[in-house]
Amino acid sequence: MKTLSSSVLSGIRLGTATLSAILTGAASSETVSVSSLADLGAPSETVNTTGQYATYSNRNVGDVTQVNTKDATFAVLIDFIAGDSAVNGVIWETGGATIGVSVSYNQAAATVSVYHSSNGGNALGVVTHNLTEAQISGGDVEVVWAYDASEIEWELFVDGVSCGTTSDTTAVNSQNNWSGGNAAGLSIYGGNFAAGNGDNTNLAAIANLGDTATINLASGLRFWAGTDTALSKPTEKPELQIETVAVAEDGMTITWNGQDGEVYQVWRSSDLESWVELDDSILAGPEGGSYLVEGEGLIPGRMFLQVRQFE
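User: That's the sequence. What structure does it adopt?
Assistant: C-alpha cells below.
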C-alpha cells in the first residue's frame, strides 16, 4: 500500500496517497529508452584524463566494429562556470572539420552545442541548449549526447532532459559517419581541428575548455558503443486528492483525481485509528473516481473518509 497523508475538506478528514511511476523500457530495436544512464549498465569505455587521445575513426570497441558509423552514447558530468568568455570551449571532440563531432560550451552565451560535420565538411548538423541559471551555478550537470545511425542525427540531453536533435544547417545532407581520422580530445580539441562550420573549416572561435568549466574526471567521459540512448525522467502521477464532497438526502458523494482504469478503495473512521472498508473495487474513469457513501456507510457525528490505492 502507498504511504498515506491527510487533508481536511468541508469538516471531513480526507485521506490522500502519493503516487509515482517510473517508465522504462526499449522504445525500438535501435534506441534504448531509460530513466538514467545506470540502466545502460557499464560503459564500453571510460576516459578519466583530459587531453588528446586516439580518434574513434574505424575503431572497434568491444564487439562493435567501426564505431564511428554505429549508434553511440557519450556522457560527462560537468560544472559550468559563469563568465563572459565568448569562445567555444571544447568539452569533447573527435575527427575534424571534414568528418567529426564536437561538443562545446560558450560561457558568454551560456550554451552547450553539438556540431556534426560530414559529407566533405559541407554538411553540418547542430543542436544547442541554453543553460539555466541553476545549471550554471548548481555544480555538476549531466550532459549526454547520443547518436542514431539510422537517422544520422545526434540528440543532446542536459540533466536528463532532451534538448533536441541535430538539424542540418546547410543544403548538403549529413552522412552516416561521426569521426574522421583526426585525434579526439577531452577538454581540448585534438589535432587542431574540430567540427564545424559547414564549409570544411573549424568551429568558429574554437578554444580549449580551459577554466570556463570543469569536467568530473572521477566519473570521466563514458562511452556506450553501439547504443543510442533516449533519456526520460521518471514520470510522476499527480498526488491523489479528494476533490469534492457533496451532501444530499440519500448520502454523501466524494470525488477524487483517480487515474482512468485504476482501482481504489474507500475507508471510513470515527477516530482516525480504527478504519472500516466501505468498498474495495472502485474503478476510476476518464473524469476520475467517485463514491456515494449511503445507508450503513454513514455514521452519526464526526466521520473521516480515506481513499487508498493498492499496487
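The chain is about 0% helix and 45% strand.
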